[in-house]
Amino acid sequence: MFHRKIKLFFLSVILCLVLHPLLWANPPNPLYVNLQDYPLYVKTGFDIADTLRPPDRDSGEWLVIEASPKRPPVYVKDLPLYGKPDRIFLSPFGAREMEFTFVIPFRISDEGAAAMERDHTLIPGIFLVSLGDNWEIYLNGRVVKAEMFLDGEGRIISHRSYRRISFPVEKNLFTRGENILAFRIVGDPTFSDMGFYYASPYYIDDYRVIVRSSNEAIDLILLGLYVFMGIHHLFMFLFRRKDRHNLYYGLFSLVLGIYLFTRTTTIYFLVQDSNIILRLELFMVILVLPLGAAFLESISLKKICLVTRIYGALYGILAISLWFFSLPYTIDVLTLWQYSIIGIAPFIIGHDIVYSFVLAVRDQKKRYTAAGKSYSPPGIIARTMVETSIGNLVIGAFLTFGTAVFDVIDSAFLHYGVTASRYGFFVFTAGSTLILARRFAFLFNQQQRIIIRSNKGMNTKLVDWIVIQDRDPNDMPSVNADNAIMFTDVRSFTTLSEGMSSRALTNFLGAINEVLAKPLFFAEDQGFVAYTDKFMGDGTMNIFTDSSVALRTAVEIRSQLKLFNADPRAFFGEAPADMQVNVGTGIAYGPVTLGIMGHSRRVDYTPIGDTVNLASRLENLTKEYNTPIIINDSLYKAVNPESFLLRHIDRIRVKGKKHPVDIYEEFSTDNPVVRDLKIKLLPRFTELQEMYFSGKNWDKANRLVEKLSRYYEESLGKNNVSPGISGDFLPGIYAKRMRLISENPELLAHWDGVYTFTSK
User: Fold this and answer.
1) Within a 10 A sphere around the Cβ of 468, how many other Cβ atoms?
2) Long-range contacts formed by 47-56: CB under 8 A, 24+ apart
3) What is the pLDDT of residues 667-707, one digit of tens each?
4) CATH number for position 310
5) Distance CA 341, CA 294 (A)
6) pLDDT tens digits for 387-401?
7) pLDDT digits (tens, 9 = 90+) for 43-61
8) Over the stretch 616-656, which tens digit does the pLDDT of each residue have?
9) Which of 186, 484, 605, 654 could form a disulfide with 134 if both were Cys (CB 3.0 to 4.6 A apart)?
10) Domain count of the chain?
């Protein structure tokens, strides 16, 4: 349930992250103007007069880029403009700054003009998804925004290639009908971030709407988490140097956080020069991939492979070179990096993700095979996804890689500036953080277990409870609850162990306990509370919170015992060829007190109470009634009788108790002939019980005993059942008691149908 809630939480967060731009969306108002619905005019040089009049399309002076809602980015470097130099790929040097004019003639509708006149709270604003390098913006000849930093020779001294530019504009600068929005742009004409280097959007709207739609709260929260987690795991690495996955994850998360910060407009308040921001952004994005791959390999393969070391070193060299050469060179490095991913992506997907996952699946199969469990391929894959580190990372890794590839395609061809990888990285980082937290908690809990067990000698379940609850063992309260207590005992243990050396005896007990414990392991693996509380020489005491699980486990113990007896040497190499082991099992269900027992140097958290004592008595009575499994009436009422073969066998008082108890046997594991006879003769057996319990017609009851005994004897003979297999002992037990009671008038006078045992 907890894991399901965690998954739902992260799914909700991811959904909010993806949809949050839509949550801020507003319907278009009359003022809204999509600037891409109008043609864009571009020319070399700048004349202030061009900011006041529409360009002459037929003059040949202007390059016209037609209106289109899906107009691609407008790079100066790609436009056929006069005087623009060519560039050699990866040349370390840039070109001399040049000046260009961009003009967009647009119209303010009558409704838009009326809205500005009518609504005094409405403030017009302009939103530009990108603009660079140095620039001035004119509206009808008036400067409305400027980021121009040139020295006396016209060279740029501080760069301003910005994303998501928004600013308010005075209403009186707009005119009803045609308006002129002009841009004076200065920069290196071979630099790709020169012009409108993202595709869309570019528009005019109510400035309040623009501010709401440009909200970066979610992005800042995400990158804050990345930076915090990065620093946190770097500190963890400093305290535990052998866990290198903390180093790689810390660097990965820190680099990712810084990269995403460079993609926000908030960074412009701290660093105004876009030259520094661009170099920092590309430096971080180039390092993200090898650091992420190093983390994946260190957590799943426990080593960094040679290929990752090689391309990681090459990426490091490229990242460092960004700081020493021109801005066009940095874009060339980005292009080279983007194309290199095409070759590296198959290796990361195939080796770091798929291959690591296949190894994890193989390890899971080995564990299941070693434990003797059955499995299906889909089940193994599902468990690997849930229970292993690489399994937890697979979905996040694929999503991260997919969004990263989209960002690369967007950066190289589409130019929408969506940064989808921030959402993919969030999933990956959230999953990675949970894995590392779980790994740390596991190591810490293991350390606690070792310390507690070495000092207190407690059982594993108690230690787990203390660790999970973070409790002092001496302060643990007693707990009262209904539980099923099962006692088992190896029959004729003295005879079986006679002649065994101490080592062989220990091996025998280990082998038989392992065989008998498999059903408990299975129940525990299914999520039930089922464990051995004590080993008592050749016997055990086991605890179950589910009554049906307890009885089913007892039946399965009989099945495991048959496997052992079929070939004892397969389990215990020193076993005699004719070794046969039998086990008696008593189960009582009822109120149990779980509490601390022991002294100052050794304590244990163990069940105590009447139910525990009764279970022990029932295990002893399996010898009296010659049946392998006996349960009390509370357990009989708690389970579904149709799921088992149960038969009421007696009404008794155990030694030391006043209240009678009805007891039942589970006989599904009896010899098939005996089992079928018990089912067939159940009405006659019930008739015998009624006479026995009532104290009436005992002569008739004795005659019925003789008939049942003969019927069993004849049926076993006809079916060639081995002489070692007995029939039903209960009629004979009833007959013996009736004879003894009949011979003692005082006992017969006080007979209430309840047989009282005077010994344990």
Assistant:
1) 9
2) 47/101, 48/141, 50/101, 50/103, 50/182, 51/103, 51/138, 51/140, 51/141, 51/180, 51/182, 52/140, 52/141, 52/180, 53/180, 54/103, 54/105, 54/178, 54/180, 55/103, 55/105
3) 998 888 889 999 999 999 999 999 999 988 889 999 999 99
4) 1.20.1070
5) 16
6) 666 666 666 666 666
7) 999 999 999 999 999 888 9
8) 999 999 999 999 999 999 999 999 988 899 999 999 988 77
9) 186
10) 3
Domain boundary among the residues 213, 238, 254 is at 213
Contact yes or no for 644/599 (Cβ under 8 A): no
In the three-class reduction of DSSP (H, G, I as helix; E, B as strand; rest coil), residue 757 is classed as coil
How many residues does this entry show for the chain?
760
| Position 461 in a domain | no
Strand pairing category for 539-544 and 479-490: antiparallel
**Does any domain span residue 722?**
yes
Q: Is there a contact between 319 and 286 (Cβ–Cβ < 8 Å)?
A: yes
- What b/e string do you get for 84-112 counting C-beta neighbours within 10 Å, with b at 16 or more? beebeeeeeebbebbebbbbbbbebeeeb
Q: Of all helices (H) and strands (E), which one includes residue 739?
A: helix 730-742
Radius of gyration of the chain from its Cα atoms, rounded to whole angstroms: 41
Question: Do residue 485 and residue 427 come from a single domain?
Answer: no
Q: Is 205 helix (H, G, I), strand (E, B) or coil?
A: strand
Does 210 score more than 80 pLDDT? yes
Cα(65)–Cα(40) distance, integer angstroms = 5
Q: Are residues 706 and 682 in the same domain?
A: yes
Q: At what angle do helices 389-409 and 274-300 cross, to 10 degrees?
A: 150
Mean pLDDT of 402-424: 57
| Pairing, β 202-206 against β 479-490 | unpaired
Assess whether 230 and 204 both reside in one domain: no
Is the residue at 733 inside a domain? yes
In order of 10, 78, 507, 520, 707, the CA distances from 512 in angstroms are 47, 81, 9, 14, 40
Are residues 408 and 492 both part of a single domain?
Answer: no
Give the bridge partners for 74, in sequence order: 196
* Residue 267 and residue 261 in contact, taking contact as beta carbons nearer than 8 Å: yes
Angle (nearest 5°) at CA 665 between 663 and 671: 165
d(CA 119, CA 136): 29
Within 8 A by CB and 6+ apart from 333, the residues are 90, 282, 286, 318, 321, 322
Structure tokens of 253? 């998360």
One domain for residues 566 and 579: yes
Q: How confident is the model at residue 14 (pLDDT cuts 50, 70, 90)?
A: very low
Which is more confidently placed, 427 or 595? Answer: 595
Residues 59 and 188 in one domain: yes
What is the SS3 assignment for 79? coil
In the predicted structure, residue 27 carries a pLDDT above the cut 60: no
Residue 625 lies in a domain: yes
226 and 365 share one domain: yes
- Find, among 462, 396, 756, 480, the residue nearest to 604 by Cα: 462
Q: Report yes or no: 191 and 327 within 8 Å, Cβ to Cβ.
A: yes
Q: Which tokens belong to 91?
A: 């040349």
SS3 sequence, 516-533? HHHHHHHHHHCCCCEEEE
**Domain residue limits at 199:** 33-213
**In whole angstroms, what is the distance from residue 579 CA to residue 511 CA?**
13
In this predicted structure, what is the pLDDT of residue 457? 46
Q: Could you say which DSSP state residue 59 is in?
A: S
Quick one: 265 and 161 in the same domain? Answer: no
Q: What are phi and psi of 4, to 5 degrees?
A: -65, -40
Distance CA 328, CA 519 (A): 70
Write the CATH number for 658: 3.30.70.1230
pLDDT in the model for residue 439: 58
Q: Is 122 in contact with 206 (CB distance < 8 Å)?
A: yes
